Amino acid sequence: MQTRPMRLGPLEDGQRVIIIGGGPAGSSCAIALKNLGRKLGRDIDVVLYEGTQYGPDSIKRVGVLAPPLVQTLENTLGVNFPCQLVARKIVGYYLHSGRYSIRLYMGGNLSYVAHNVALDAYLLGMASRMGVRVLSGRVKDIKINHHEVSVEGESGGTRGDVLVGAFGLDSFTAGLLEKVTPYRRPRALYSIMAKIPAPVEYLLGCEDYIHVFLPSMGEVEFGVVTPKLTHFIVNIAGRRVSHEALRRFLALPEVARLIPTDALAAWSTSGGLVSPPIPFPLEPARNSYGDRYVTVGDAAGLVRAYKGNGINAACVTGAKAAEVMLTAGISHEAFLYHYFHAFSDIIKDLPYGRAVRRLVLFGEGYGLLPLVLYAAGKDRTLVNVLIDFLSGHKTYHRILKDWGGVELIYRFLKGLLPWMPPARVEATKPAAEATMGRLAPR
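and the corresponding structure tokens:
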């Protein structure tokens, strides 16, 4: 293929984009390139390398699709939300610390539970049907110079005009890009996930809530239990999580009350399906873009600090990168001013996200988080703050601005006095309930 030397303006008809990674970020970028390219009268050649094959029993992620994803797929990418993949609707969260729990109803902002790799297959299939050439097998080498980029993979080599890194935090592929560019992967936490089968009748009787745990366990910063139709997905996250830490987490009384004893015993004795440690970013990557290359999704680290919603962030960043390549260019300056700056709210919120993480770790270490839940169980404002923190709809800076840091401290201290068993409260937004006992099916 002939490339235009030093052509760093908007992509023109016939130019080629090489995408590494066929997850939501890579597929969204490919779909957006095809859709917007055709609207602009340009046929952009897109080649996508996907190196990992996942089976039906694989564990790649929890599979919770947050509310903004529906609008992102339909309005930004122009594809239908895959309703057929939805296995369960999630209406809220239980937040647990020690013997205290609080129920947070999200007020109609539904999340959806799907098979953890089903959305990936759906989006990659859509990209393929739109004319994206999908090559299977891992990438073995990357070269980028002033005139072109080239990629060598197990399915052969490809030369093009610009490279899109959508490889998540895969260390091997990140290392290839780091050798030829100033790119440096983001710092990460690690998650270990377990798939624990349980009786269908029990799962159907469980409330449509995700359970978030903030345990005092050192290496485990938080844990999540998500009910699906045939099993629970349990994941723990921290800097140094391990299979042993997962087993100790499952043995916590508040976790063991949620999953049937027989199911836990059967999973444990059978060896259980457990994922290897899976990284997810804590902050943006350094030099995540440059002349003829840009990273999207987890590889770019442009996710809300300590909040999740990673699938939606992957789709949004993939689509935005495609828009910039087609309307502004593929130079460092184009990606800086039109791509990176588009996510300035995330970048500016990072110091607040780091502060929240430190406060959570401090609270876990000194056993203070149960007191927070106790106080929130008696104050609707604190309940609404917890909902804002969990939902990801607002930045931490916005939450503090809306509610006021001094007022929150006052309400927290007021909620601790007098010390008495927590009572049911009704929030002005979603309702909440502070409980101290068994977490039973509905």
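(Above: one complete record from the training split.) The chain has three domains: 16-56+115-187+282-347, 188-279, 351-433.
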